[in-house]
Design brief:
The structure is a single chain. By secondary structure, this protein is of the alpha/beta class. The chain is 20% helix and 23% strand. The strands form seven sheets. A nine-stranded mixed sheet has the order 5-4-1-6-12-8-16-13-15, sandwiched between helices. Strands 18-19-22-25-28-31-34 form a seven-stranded mixed sheet. The chain has a five-stranded parallel sheet with strand order 20-23-26-29-32, with no helix packed on it. The longest helix is centred in the N-terminal third of the chain and has 12 residues. It is elongated and about 70 Å long.
Length: 548
């Protein structure tokens, strides 16, 4: 079908003068158990402590938060991870240039990511960032915060649309979803593919709420969310919620546009969203311990509204836009989108932030008392004027009937020069170890420049390694690794203190710490657990070795 690009529809803040630098969002980073797809690499450590280009995955996430101006971070994990996480934080704090308050919170019985959020609910004072621990993001979180703020959203999520490169990176069915997004970013549907028996059903009432929407199955939920304070209260009071990504988020999306009394009955905590920012975050007025964000972060903050910049770029947040049909066809590549370059962010003082928040939310602060009990009625049955009917049919119109729960999504259409991904299986883990060293390091890259990178071999080699007449290509080799003569390694991740014998051929493999590969082995697409010994002369493909 014929489609056309439209101008950016984001509400743009007027010019705002900087008053002071203050943290706006607390951050909750939840370290959940691996679901088994990373076995045997996660036998002894959580996924977030696996090395990527010889740095722990968690360090990349903290680097992004640090560059974005975060000042208060809670890392929540199961009690059994206390020692490895404690050791990691001791090392990581030595690399920080400014003070970031990072607290480790350990949960005795953690059955899912929702338990992690429940563990810190009493510490959350306002809208907050809720993150998984398996992503790598080179972008500022400022655009996500901007979308959350200007739409007075209750849940704002980040999606990535990977570029089709022809590389065979396995995408598991459990990660595939059908996601419907309106032309201004309203998430109208979020359904896992595995839950569909025959097809997708969209009610006529829902279609009346939007002029157009784009239905996609190529988007990846990054596990990066901004949530209203009441969402944490709702999770704390509802023990049936186990996973944030698969339970909570689809539930909130589904509850949109339902009758007001029905929504408030199902989610009593939603009443609390009417509180002004100053009553939720009065701590901003007196908090003197917040870290000051130095000038070198000015181009990479998520704490305040961005300036107006409508220039386009190939790898920027985008909103599907198609006015030629009510529903665009399901796509597996790029949808027609309106691009928006991440712009410089300014800083806003508490009083001005309160005024902005109140002005944006005043039009819907009294909705629970005034809205109709039948928000899904056909527009033809409404008795309002045509202008009012148009406002009530808009998915972002704050006067729309039943529009007291609002979910938005920010889509990044990726290019070959950008990194935004989740590590969900071993295939994606090998891929990011190959791709990340190839990306140019710029002033806006949140993590530090990689060390010991061999350009010719396209590989990262750790310190203290012994490589005697070996051939390596696109590998990550950890510290203190010994590789015997005449061995060949291609597209492998070799962790610390591994020993590989002579005349070995190893391709597309991951070898965990302290493993031993004896002489004359030929391994292809194999995964070796920590401390495992592979006998001499072993020739296997697509095998997993573990001491368990």
């Amino acid at each position: 079908s014929t489609t056309s690009q439209q101008d950016n529809k984001y509400p743009i803040m007027s010019s705002i003068s900087a008053i002071q630098t203050v943290p706006e969002f607390q951050v909750v980073l939840i370290i959940d158990y691996d679901d088994g797809r990373m076995f045997p690499l996660t036998e002894d450590v959580p996924k977030c402590l696996l090395p990527v280009a010889n740095r722990k995955l968690l360090s990349y996430q903290l680097d992004t938060l640090h560059k974005s101006g975060a000042a208060e971070v809670y890392i929540v994990a199961a009690k059994e991870f206390e020692i490895p996480l404690g050791n990691f934080m001791k090392d990581y704090r030595l690399t920080l240039n400014v003070t970031v308050n990072i607290d480790l919170v350990f949960v005795d019985e953690m059955m899912g990511s929702a338990d992690g959020l429940r563990a810190v609910t009493d510490r959350i004072r306002g809208d907050f960032l809720c993150l998984s621990s398996d992503f790598i993001c080179q972008f500022s979180l400022g655009d996500l915060a901007h979308m959350h703020r200007v739409n007075t959203s209750d849940l704002t999520m980040m999606f990535a649309a990977p570029q089709s490169t022809g590389k065979d990176v396995k995408k598991d069915e459990v990660d595939q979803e059908y996601i419907a997004i309106s032309d201004n970013g309203r998430v109208l549907l979020k359904t896992p593919t595995l839950e569909l028996d025959e097809g997708i059903e969209l009610s006529k009432a829902l279609l009346h709420k939007t002029d157009s929407l784009c239905l996609r199955n190529d988007l990846q939920d990054m596990g990066i969310y901004i949530m209203s304070h009441w969402v944490a209260e709702f999770v704390a009071s509802n023990k049936k919620i186990s996973s944030i990504r698969t339970d909570l988020v689809p539930y909130l999306v589904q509850r949109q546009f339902q009758p007001t009394d029905l929504v408030l009955k199902a989610i009593p905590a939603l009443e609390h969203r009417k509180r002004p920012l100053s009553s939720i975050e009065s701590w901003l007025m007196t908090n003197k311990s917040a870290a000051t964000i130095h000038s070198h972060h000015e181009s990479f903050q998520f704490l305040t509204p961005p300036s107006n910049n409508k220039a386009t770029t190939a790898s920027t947040p985008s909103i599907p836009s198609s006015k030629h049909s009510l529903i665009t066809p399901i796509v597996t590549s790029h949808a027609v989108t309106t691009h928006r370059r991440p712009s410089l962010l300014t800083t806003v003082g508490t009083e001005l932030a309160d005024q902005l928040h109140e002005s944006l939310s005043s039009s819907r602060s009294h909705l629970s008392h005034t809205l109709s009990n039948d928000p899904l009625a056909s527009p033809s049955s409404a008795s309002s004027s045509s202008a009012n009917r148009k406002a009530s049919s808009s998915p972002t119109g704050s006067s729309s009937s039943g529009d007291i729960l609002r979910c938005f999504g920010l889509v990044y259409e990726l290019s070959s020069s950008t990194i935004l991904t989740r590590i969900t299986n071993i295939s994606s883990y090998i891929a990011i170890n190959k791709d990340l060293p190839l990306h140019p390091h710029t002033a806006k890259t949140p993590w530090r420049r990689l060390t010991n990178y061999l350009k010719k071999e396209q590989s990262v080699v750790g310190e203290g390694c012994e490589l005697k007449s070996v051939t390596i290509k696109q590998c990550t080799i950890g510290h203190n690794v010994r590789i015997g003569q005449m061995s060949k390694l291609n597209s492998c991740v070799i962790m610390e203190n591994v020993t590989i014998g002579e005349n070995c051929t190893i391709q597309n493999c991951v070898i965990s710490e302290k493993a031993i590969i004896e002489n004359n082995c030929n391994l292809n697409e194999c995964n070796i657990g920590s401390g495992y010994k592979v006998s001499a002369g072993t020739k296997v493909k697509n095998e997993t070795f573990s001491q368990l």
